[in-house]
Write a structure and sequence with these properties.
Number of strands: 10
Strand content: 5-15%
Radius of gyration: 22 Å
CATH topology: Cytochrome p450
Shape: globular
CATH superfamily: Cytochrome P450
CATH class: Mainly Alpha
Oligomer: single chain
Distance between the termini: 43 Å
Order of helices and strands: HHEEHEHHHEHHHHHHHHEEEEHHEE
Number of helices: 16
Largest sheet: 5 strands, mixed
CATH architecture: Orthogonal Bundle
Amino acid sequence: MDATRHERLDELQRDPYPLYAQARRTEGLTFVTELDAWLVARDADVREVLLRADDFSSEQALRPDVMPSPAAFGVLAQGFGKRPTVVSTDGSAHRRHRAPLNSRLSASRVAELLPYATEQATALLDGFVADGRTELMASYARRLPGAVIGRLIGFDPADVPAAVHGGHRAEQLLFRPMSEKDQLAAAQDVVDLQHLLDRYARARHAEPRDDLCSAMVAALAPGDADGDPDRSTHGDPDRCAELTPDQRAELVSNLQNFLIAGHLTTTALIGSTLFHLLRDDRAQWELLRDRPELIPGAVEEAARFDTAVQGFRRTTTRPVTLAGTELPAGATVFVAYGSANRDESRYADPDVFDITRTPSRHVAFGHGAHGCPGSQLARAQLRLTLQLFTERLPGLRLAKDHEVVMRPTLIHRSPLELHLTW
């Protein structure tokens, strides 16, 4: 990507909403050079695409914005090759990848995680509450989701920081321009993460536990040829067939995808929500502090107003017409959840952040078959955060000596840093 296009893409990603508004007012679809895609901006069109998986494939949903250098690819070759995941598949393949996520992210499973999430959130808050100020993204917003996702997957707590770091580095490598030296370092971090995930997959294959990693192994690398689904032999290598290289690569890809999706988006949602509650005259924060019954609605308004995952790409599988625009087979569209959630035809005053708004069925967590299976877990962590912070930090405010700058990405939109005082 040339420097000029990178600058334009950065500008767009830091504040995509003016472009969205223009695209919603424009007849048909708008082609956006910076995204190399047709922008699907209106709520009705976004929902239509997400319900037409046969016509709009998810195979290239996460096409990188930046292609790593050949040297970085050389480092990545020491890890595991990319395989399809729940984000990049459709139909029966998508259902196969999604099944273990659905089972482990059910309402009852999320409820089981809440005491642990509460314990972790409280401990994090205890760590800085006496300081009078903190940079929230580093001290809390990146740490709580990582701990919760680590618990869900089945990580030893000592491995969580490295796993979270590797997830951030994978996102940087594919979506942020870096020098070759930095690319090589990021690629090595990704490889280290993949080998960590592989060790967990092989350990759970030998001896399953009650965690998501074991559920993924059971679903994606099921029983032996005799049909026995229980491949556990208490670690006895003579009785338990080894995972094949393809199975290991598929498990690593899916664990990596879930890890990144599970903590990056919730981190973004926590940061953006606190920012919008505290900006301007803090009226929304004071309202929430005084009326905690508004917390569930505040969670939905925050997800709608500044959507963490702004959208995904889709690729047409045949010639189609959308919003009056004729698209050939193989055309790329960017399905903008963030734009749909600001659609004037669906929301009154959509550019106003109002936690008293009656919650509606926004598309912040997707729609249809690809709706986010972890949406309830993300909501639960944000509700917990708002409950704790309004109770223990009622005087919370944005630090006056730090400007809030949004991260230039459409994958987990959030403040780069969020300095707070109380």
